[in-house]
Design goal:
The structure is a single chain. The chain is an alpha/beta fold. The strands form 7 sheets. It has a 6-stranded mixed sheet with strand order 3-2-1-4-9-10. Strands 11, 12, 13, 16, 23 and 24 form a 6-stranded mixed sheet that branches. Helix 1 crosses helix 6 and helix 8 (255-268) crosses helix 20 (570-577). It is globular, with a radius of gyration of 26 Å.
Length: 676
């Protein structure tokens, strides 16, 4: 009897620069088999274009019938990149029971920026008892807010103990505006109102972006006849359904890096390693311990903001192949600076727009002296016009002047004020800046060839003309400049990997003497006190450019660097070999002696017996976890329940303070076969 063939799995990773696709089968070795892989440029104006380019290529290469694909799983760095680059939709933050002083905590005011905030009386105490709720101010503001924002974030005082006031505000906003609303209790059960508000704010900003990604992917799959469930990788490496991710896009921050960790472990079999994943926008560094990624118990930090999202303990740096190349100001021998902002590489702009870019670069080269805006262009990202809501008059005027073809900045801008306006348009995700990047440097020296090398060389010539503190050109030739940029990228990569190692050892590498020591070690600084540093485990280098940028890593980190064969699609591969994993939790407090109050989801119940309260909590979280696992995309979840008690002993008597009950459900995602 002939055995049925194993189902095929399609993995997709939508990154800042490239969209990757991999077709994988469980057949073959214990690691399964990569049948085909491909890359296509990420098209932010219409994500389906980049997705179709990569997926169609793997289908054609493997001669696969689309109907044979039984599961599609996707990871993405779009949310991570948006937070690193300060992008996202304009949202209104609704704070219930908080004061304006609370905005100063946990970076909330910085994250809010110029977005509107509304304060309403209300909220609850630690035991879930309500203060008086007044939403009249919110109701009065909704007509104007409904026209100027893309969504709302609602956070109420102690909503994790009683979400009633958040639910009331959410229902009012939906009724009056019809816009997306994120309530903080839906994202986290942890205390700490301002940080929970920050997490909710960022979630609301990301909704339209992730919604567009999921919609584009689902639309493409339908057109190709791929009738398979769509999963998304969460920030802790687990898989969830696309519908789940749409409601909680904040949980996809570090999705791409988390998938890369799963892929790194799968490809190398290493249980203990540092993993460094270099993309176009960011470098993500994390640790594998005993075959599992370390998770950050305090919540993921991305773009300088500490969230309440459980995710891999990943340090994300604004360093990638498309990082902005700049020059240190005011130094006799200025250093090359990289990132954190991503630019559209000149080689890519030249390939897409040809003469419109090269003619301007040649014009600037003919000038007798270098200009501060040489080699820089502005171009619209192509996002829908509705996402440009709320622009000031100066922003709208400049935005109108920028089109779909790159426009040289020395023609576009006439003042520093306009430059600041342009930067605001970039931060809103409405405009891209094109300029010289490490990807261009790689084209100049022949180490990369997928875009237009001649445009990259023109950009390198312009950059090499810049002056140092002595008035001399910073490089004699474009090739010398390009090599200097590439060496700098490898050196910075080593620094970030070592800083992450120090941080995992309990030292903050960027804020202690460790930072200076790392720099001395990486530079092999000749001093009286010489310092060397070595990792206790190898580095797994991931990313399409890892073979180039990490070739020189071993002597800088004191250990080996392994670059797997399929490193260029590690994220997409990690997306299809993962598992669904969700959790549910409940808390039991004792507002008065002999009364045990259970807060579980959107309900509160009181018990007079501790054991009955614990049993009810365990039953609740098991039921909720099972339902969440089903919603997240698995029908075969195993559920583990753990209870943690906080007690004290007074005169030999045990005194109950609080109990925390957590259920974790995990299982392989359902496929089209299991749905049949």
């Amino acid at each position: 009897m002939t055995a049925k063939p194993k189902p095929l799995f399609l993995g997709i990773d939508t990154g800042g620069t490239y969209t990757d696709a991999v077709l994988w089968s469980e057949e073959g070795s214990p690691k399964g088999k990569v049948l085909a892989k491909a890359k296509s440029l990420t098209t932010r104006h219409d994500l389906a274009v980049g997705i179709s380019g990569a997926v169609d290529a793997v289908l054609e290469t493997s001669a696969t019938d689309p109907a044979a694909i039984k599961l599609v799983s996707m990871s993405t760095t779009l949310a991570t990149n948006a937070l690193v680059e300060g992008q996202g939709g304009r949202v209104a933050l609704i704070m219930i029971g908080f004061s304006e002083a609370d905005l100063a905590r946990d970076g909330l005011k910085t994250a809010l920026g110029t977005d509107p905030v509304v304060f309403c009386p209300g909220g609850h105490d630690v035991h879930g008892n309500a203060a008086k709720l007044d939403l009249s101010g919110l109701e009065a503001a909704l007509p104007e807010l409904g026209r100027s924002v893309s969504g709302f974030a609602v956070c109420a005082y102690f909503a994790t103990r009683n979400p009633a006031h958040e639910l009331a505000a959410r229902d009012l906003i939906r009724e009056k505006t019809g816009l997306p609303v994120t309530a903080s209790h839906e994202l986290s059960a942890k205390l700490g109102g301002p940080r929970r508000a920050l997490t909710t704010l960022l979630n609301a900003r990301l909704i339209s972006m992730i919604d567009r990604l999921v919609a584009a992917t689902e639309g493409f799959l339908a057109k190709r006849g791929i009738a398979a469930p769509l999963m998304v990788v969460r920030g802790d490496g687990a898989l969830v359904s696309a519908a789940f991710a749409r409601q909680r896009p904040i949980e996809t921050i570090l999705s791409g890096p988390a998938a890369s960790l799963v892929g790194a472990r799968h490809m190398t079999g290493l249980d203990d390693a540092m993993v460094s994943d270099i993309g176009g926008t960011t470098t993500d560094v994390a640790v594998l311990d005993s075959g599992r990624p370390r998770l950050d118990p305090e919540g993921a930090t991305v773009g300088g903001f500490r969230t309440m999202v459980e995710a891999v303990a990943m340090r994300t740096f604004g360093l990638g192949g498309d990082s902005e190349v700049a020059l240190e100001d005011g130094a006799l021998d200025p250093k090359i600076l990289l990132g954190p902002r991503r630019l559209v590489p000149l080689a890519l702009a030249g390939m897409a727009h040809g003469e419109a870019v090269t003619a301007e670069l040649e014009r600037q080269l003919r000038a007798p002296n270098p200009g501060r805006m040489d080699g820089r262009f502005a171009v619209r990202t192509g996002v829908p016009d509705r996402l440009a809501a709320g622009l000031t008059a100066s922003e709208a005027k400049l935005y109108e002047a920028i089109g779909a073809v790159p426009l040289a900045l020395d023609r576009l801008l006439s003042s520093n004020a306009q430059n600041a306006t342009l930067n605001r348009l970039v931060s809103r995700g409405l405009v891209h800046i094109c300029g010289f990047t490490p990807s261009d440097a790689a084209h100049v020296v022949g180490k990369q060839s997928n875009w237009d090398a001649s445009t990259a060389r023109l950009g390198a010539e312009l950059f090499a003309r810049r002056r140092d503190g002595r008035g001399q050109s910073i490089a004699a030739t474009p090739e010398i400049l390009a090599e200097r940029v590439l060496v700098t990228l490898t050196r910075w990569s080593a620094e970030y990997i070592l800083e992450t190692a120090f941080a995992e050892d309990g030292l903050d590498g960027a804020a202690t003497v460790a930072h200076a020591l790392v720099q001395r070690a990486v530079d092999a600084h000749p001093g009286i006190a010489r310092f060397t540093v070595a990792l206790d485990r190898p580095v797994i280098g991931l990313g399409a450019s890892a073979p180039l940028h990490y070739a020189g890593l071993p002597p800088l980190i004191g250990n080996g660097c392994i670059v797997p064969e399929d490193t260029d699609v590690a994220n997409a591969l990690g997306a299809v070999v993962g598992q669904v994993r969700v959790s549910a939790e409940a808390r039991i407090s004792q507002p008065q002696e002999g009364l045990f109050r259970l807060a579980s989801g959107q309900t509160m119940r009181d018990f007079t017996d501790e054991a009955k309260a614990i049993a009810a909590a365990e039953a609740d979280v098991r039921t909720v976890a099972a339902q969440r696992a089903k919603d997240a995309g698995t029908d075969s979840a195993e559920i583990d329940v753990a209870t943690e008690f906080k007690v004290s002993t007074i005169e030999g008597q045990r005194m109950f303070i609080e109990a925390h009950v957590v259920a974790v459900a995990s299982g392989r995602p359902r496929t089209a076969i299991s749905q049949a």
